Fold this sequence. Notes:
The chain is an alpha+beta fold.
Amino acid sequence: MQMIVGVRFKKAGKIYYFSPGKYALALGDEVIVETVRGTECGCVVLGPREAEENGAQPLKPVQRKATAQDLQKVEENHRQEKEAFKICEKKIKVHGLPMKLVDVEYTFDLNKIIFFFTADGRIDFRELVKDLASVFRTRIELRQIGVRDEAKLMGGMGCCGRPLCCSMFLGDFEPVSIRMAKEQNLSLNPTKISGICGRLMCCLKYECAGYRKNCPKRRTKPPKQGSRVASAEGEGKVISLNMQRRTATILLDSHKTLVAAWEDIVAVEQEDKA
């Protein structure tokens, strides 16, 4: 067993694990750690806990708790990122490259600048990198990202009226399928189930588990919308479903509507027309 802490470098970024070393760390502490990108400043989002050693390389230890000077340097880096963003945009126009700059990141030790951009296809940005390196005198990395990553970096408001899930708390993107929308009885209109990135909404994925929990695969499986069923008050057609309440609205043959629980109705086989 070994002690680990979880550190994030962005508000909703991926969690990376480090050894606390000799430091007594708590949730919310700012720490300085060594990463593959160089020295970085991050926030402890998972407090010290024991974890099994899986035989991989030992975790890198936390170098130190961030001091007031370290935090001031982080703020200064953010100011420089804004200036670098403006300079890079001008250089992109000069070189006439069909790309959109999304974000700029400095490493804590200023050893590297990372420029995130989107583009429809592959871009030959070798001359742009040389131009930027001559201006900033440090290592330059241009990283092409997708539309979902762009939405995560830029943030925004979803159709629900709340900030985007990906920019608030989702650390990783998971595959989302149209089948999840069907299981939740949602409209399959692309404009209603797509986020501002143009892809299927992330909430379809993590809310789907709740619907599956309420709809176990047994005799209480929900009826299909449009199917004929029999209830205590007669036969009719299912016109809508409430997946959370596990009820179905039925238009009876007597032209009355009835709301019944799934357990109280049975499917009726329709006779083949001659």
